[in-house]
Each structure stands twice: as C-alpha cells, then as structure tokens.
Fold this sequence. Notes:
By secondary structure, the protein is α+β, with helices and mostly antiparallel strands. It has a single domain, classed as CATH 3.30.1390.20. Helix content is 45%, strand content 20%. The protein contains 3 helices and 3 strands. The chain is globular. It starts with a helix and ends with a strand.
Amino acid sequence: MSKQIANQKAVTEQLNALNNARGKKATIEQVISTVRSLPVHKANLNALGLRGINKKREHVITPQIEGMLRKVIHMVKISEVS
C-alpha cells in the first residue's frame, strides 16, 4: 500500500471520528508542523490553541470547531475524552 493511500485512509478515519464526536468533548493534538503550510491552516491551528507539535487541547465539538478541524484534519489527531 502506498504512503498516500495510507494517509488518505487515516484522514477518512479522522473525519468519521469527528462526525461521531459532535457535542462531545474531544482532545485535539497537533502532529505536523506549520512550517511551509498555508496561512489559513496556521490561523486555524492558532484559533484552536495549538501552537506547536505535540500540543494538546480539549474542545467541545461544535459546528465552528468542526469547520476549523476540517481545514487542518491532515495536521491533527482527534480522540474522544472518556
């Protein structure tokens, strides 16, 4: 399996997790640097409170947060808080 297909599957899994988490609290972790990324992506990560690799923040998944996460889904890891 190529690296691109594996990455696409991971993003699809993240989007499915995001859809199931609406209204719940989730931990969001930045896993990719903002160096050489678009200004829109940097702004969304800053608005989410993620200012570096391996930084984590907890958010309640609202439509606003969900929209920001969809822009940077390839740069973050989402996990539900139990």
